[in-house]
Specification:
Layout: E1 4-8, E2 23-24, E3 28-29, E4 40-41, E5 44-48, E6 51-54, E7 60-68, E8 73-75, E9 88-93, E10 97-103, E11 108-112, E12 115-123, E13 126-135, E14 138-148, E15 150-151, E16 160-170
Parallel strand pairs: 6-16
Antiparallel strand pairs: 1-9, 2-5, 3-4, 5-7, 7-13, 8-12, 8-15, 9-14, 10-13, 11-12, 14-16
């Protein structure tokens, strides 16, 4: 199996999904809080899908659903400030399976209290990435990593990578 890592950014489409159990990234400390396990929270969860079926040899659209913890935001894929870390999705490709594009939604304007005129482009709450793919007949595994930096109103945490997998059956 030949693997190639592709960083995908933005184009536009709609997708298909099925709700499953969330995959959580490692717990992050809440800024300004204690570092004990009881005071940690998950910044971003991969919610769904875990398994899908697509038409073989035809373009398919798959929505990847993420949940950003309450009180946190992550920079959009296209932050307005060059020093901010953009949200990215890195996809590992295998033979017989090809991701052609990933559509990121536009970010939401967000201003911090200490700089109300400077608008950041961020994601909060639910985040859906529209993934365009084509697969030859058979079983495939979409492996990807969401790279992001979570922040609250006081501080940003170190950048994180959230691995995810989606089983794909192409018939």
């Amino acid at each position: 199996m030949r693997l190639a890592v592709i960083l995908l950014l933005a184009t536009a489409a709609v997708g298909v999904s099925a709700a499953q159990s969330p995959i959580k990234d490692p717990a992050l400390p809440i800024p300004g809080g204690q570092s004990s396990r009881d005071n940690m929270q998950t910044a971003v969860e991969f919610v769904s899908p875990v398994q899908i079926t697509v038409a073989a040899d035809h373009p398919a659209l798959v929505d990847l659903h993420f949940r950003i913890a309450s009180g946190l935001h992550i920079n959009s894929h296209d932050p307005r400030e060059k020093t901010l870390i953009p949200t990215r999705l890195a996809v590992v490709e295998e033979r017989g399976f090809h991701v052609t594009a990933v559509d990121f939604p536009p970010g939401t304007d967000y201003a911090l209290a200490f700089a109300p005129k400077e608008k950041l482009s961020v994601y909060t709450g639910e985040l859906v990435l529209h993934t365009h793919l084509t697969a030859q007949p058979g079983e495939h595994l979409l492996q990807a990593t969401l790279h992001y930096q979570a922040c609250d109103i006081n501080a940003c945490m170190p950048p994180r990578n959230l691995p995810l997998e989606v089983s794909i059956l192409a018939k």
